[in-house]
Amino acid sequence: MKQLAFLFLCFASFVSAAKTDLPLGKWIDSAERILRAQTSASVLKMNINKAEYQRDFTLLVLTDDRDEAQKVMVRMLGPALWRGNMTLKVDERISFFEPRNKRTTVMSSSMLASSWMGSHFSNDDLMRETDLAQHYAYSAQKAWDKDTRNYHLVELTPLPSAPVVWGKVLYTLYIEEGRVYPEQVTYFRRKDDPKPERTLTYSDIKNMDGMKVPTMMEMRVTDKPDEYTRMHYQKIKFNTDLAASKFSEQAFL
Amino acid sequence: MIHKLALRNLLRNKRRSSLTSVIIVFAFSMMILFMGLSDGGHKAMIDIGVRMGLGHIIVQHDSYSDDPALQHLIAEPEQLIAQIKQQHPTLTAVTRLRVDALIQAGRHGVALTISGVQPNKESQVSAIADQKAIIAGKTLAQFTNDQHMQRLSGIVIGETLAKNLEVRIGDTVTITAKPASGADLARSAFMVAGIFKTGLHELDTFWAEVPLISLQTLLEVPNYASQIALYSQANPETLAVTTQQLKTTFSTYDVQPWQTAAPELYSAVTLDAAGMYLLMLIVYVVVAVGILNTVLMSTFRRQKEFGMMIALGSRASTVSKVVLLEAVYLSAFSLSIGLALGLWGHYHFATEGLNFKEVFGTAMEAGGVLLPEKFYSILDTSKLTLSVLFVFLLTIIVTLIPAIRAGHRSPLAATQDA
Amino acid sequence: MIKLTKINKIFADKHQSFHCLKDIDLSIGQGEFTVIAGPSGSGKSTLLNIMGMLDKPTSGNFLFDEKDVAQFSSNKLADIRRDKIGFVFQAYNLMPVLTALENTEMIMEFSGVSKKERKQRAIETLEAVGLGEFKNRFPAQLSGGQQQRVAVARAIAAKPLLVIADEPTANLDSQSTESLLDLMVSLNEKLGITFIFSSHDPRVIERAHRVIHLQDGKVMRDEQLADMSAGHPQAAMSS
Fold first, then answer.
1. What residues contact B106, with CB distance under 8 A and at least 6 apart?
2. CB contact under 8 A, C75 and B313
3. Are residues B15 and B144 in the same domain?
4. CB distance C109–B316 less than 8 Å?
5. In the sheet that C85-88 helps form, which strands lie side by side, from edge to edge?
6. What are the tens digits of pLDDT across the range A11-58?
7. CATH of the domain spanning C2-95+156-224, picked from 3.30.310.10, 3.30.40.10, 3.40.50.300, 3.30.390.10
8. Which of the given ranges, A200-209, B181-190, C107-116, has the highest pLDDT on average?
């Protein structure tokens, strides 16, 4: 009897697991936010490798997700030429600050398409940071285990009328010790496209401020295999109480 | 007798008279030919230009020209159209909403102008929305009419834009723009319904059309429009009158004829027309010089003859009249033939049209407008008549002084030795 | 008819002046057949030009039909030349684009004579000079002598009072010279037209009734060679 009940439980849990009750949306959301928590303050090195040029920046990044209006502040720490440049995003409004001529530019829709600081990320990427958690329908494709990690491959397809530019996104994430980690995100232009247009890879798991997080993000464009943009986190502080004033244009001056 | 003398004198030196005549015939007939082709070309340019998202008359909010912001839109455009059509029922009216926005597909993004149109109405007047301009997919009208099951509104984009975005028919793109509510950005998805090619770089790379309602929704301006475009079949003079009437009746709006709404087109046309006037000037000079040369040469040789006439008792005015008549007959004869030839050429091009591509190898773009491959010669009768009269008058003016001087030859010239 | 008193003509330009006619006193009456004789440079042509009102004297008095010519406007002078004087020049007498007939009619056309009448008169005159059958020929198709005859026909067809001819036979052969002279004499006798012409040809001079010898711009001699017919009073003569 006990065996039967156990079997039944297993069966039930198996069935329930097989149902699309997997919290895919929540997993994607958690994976996307892994480096943000409620608030974060990080120093990272950005290395851009393009055919036309190579750049190395050191950035200070502050994020604050405590309110509806998410805030991001990026300040260039180096090299000297760009030191002091700042990008501020409050909800959907992005503004740039150039210390040399003390000019603040509010981003218009036409600037969305241009790349952010010459990298493989666009200003729009900066804007749509949490897009993947919102406008897509999720479908579990595969699941496998490796070591202590429980991997899942999730296919994201845009909801009807969703204002998104990707026809399909394949998200590889894993769950370890109860937390969701992103491993790779491949972006496809059209659902049936055999090749992705770009790929974002997370790696180099380290302990930062008591949390295990991937500290390396690399974006590659399929058509240009020799190019990449890497963001390498040097140090991060999570959940400090960041003053709201840090996320305003007054902070520019 | 003076007519007899004049005519026979012309025939006296057949070679000189013929040569002058041929020069005048050639110059004049060419002028007429080019006049017709030039005017025809301009009309074609204007017709096409006006159909590239423009219009013969554009009605906008008073402040829209200076600041095309969402606060300066026309409210309830259909009502305004109804009022306009009451006064001018022959005009065709379309409503449009324009905005600068961002189009994105995959990792590509391009800043461009979006034009929200009424697909069925627009296809009647616009060369962009036209079936002929579509090189892939459907026109916006066809797509929207077939829509029933489709979730996304359609968008038609230019060929170069499609290439730059690497999109195909059926792909989804997003349009991002700043809405009226003051929020920073609003974004909607559209399905690429068709790809057009106008041949004009600006349009093919930075222009897209969507249904008016979709754009109004995105921008949060329901029942508002940037402009009402009016199209007419009337000739330019009538059009000017209509524009003036509209300006007076709808004084709270900004009513512009295409000449001010599209100054580049207008200046291209006027510049070209100026070139034509220059040509006409050259022809006039050629004719004047030709006649003057002939008259001077012939009077120079006949000093004894004129002296004799005076000696025999003719008045100075009689001699002058003979010289003048010679020029008049030569001019009239040459002009008639030149006119006939020119008109024949014009008639040929008025019916057959000139296929620019055949003749010059490429299609011609001028002032940002693509000329249709074929256009027809048009002659303005009053312009033509004035030209003929002017040349005639010129002949007389040019001959006047030599004629007067011929008449005042001393009669002693007749008595001198050969 | 013509009365010249102290007529002087000086030709002057920037560099030099030439006193061509010096104090000429002369009268010629109606019906005379007078030759102005003299070597070249004597002023014959100039004198004829003044008498024919083609040129104006520098000083002196010219009465034509007892009226002072100096008072006449150039239009009035043209009218007198048209109506009262006929000219026969040495050469280039005829309009090359007109036929003999049309040339003959020309002066009458200037005067406004009716088409029918002038055509008739022209034909008659041409026949009188013996060129009736050549009336539709152009000057280029006529010999030198024939051309001069047409010129004479033209000169008299308009019924002038006076015919002035400057060396009319200079370019003609002797036969044509004779016949032209015969013609002019008979016209003078039959119609009473005054003939004043210049020549240095002795054959011509001997046919004249009166010869005025000119030398260096002055009248040297004024000879009466024959009776003037047609009953016109003779002018006084100087020696």
1. A165, A166, A187, A189, A197, B165, B166
2. no
3. no
4. no
5. C85-88, C162-166, C194-199, C33-37, C210-215, C218-224
6. 544 444 444 577 888 888 888 888 877 888 999 999 999 988 898 989
7. 3.40.50.300
8. A200-209
Q: Report whether CATH 3.20.20.70 matches the domain A24-252.
A: no
Cβ distance of B174 and A164 shorter than 8 Å: yes
Nearest CA in chain A to B104: A165
| Contact yes or no for B151 and A160 at CB 8 A | yes
C-alpha A77/C-alpha A234 separation (Å) is: 13
Residues of C whose CB is below 8 A from B305: 92, 95-96
Partner chains of C (3+ C-beta pairs under 8 Å): B
Predicted ipTM?
0.82
> Closest residue of A to B108, CA-based?
A113
The whole-number pLDDT of residue A253 equals 65
- Chain A positions touching B149 (Cβ under 8 A) are none
Q: Give how far Cα A84 sits from Cα of A31, A119, A155, A246, B4, Å.
A: 30, 18, 40, 14, 98
The residue segments making up the domain with residue B39 are 2-49+267-415
Q: A163 and B189 in contact by Cβ < 8 A?
A: yes
Cα angle, residue C79 at apex, residues C73 and C84 outer, rounded to 5°: 125
Q: How far is CA A125 from CA A48, A180, A217, in A?
A: 16, 21, 14
Give the pairing type, strands B57-61 and C59-64.
unpaired
Name which of B107, B152, B188 is nearest A221 (Cβ-Cβ).
B107
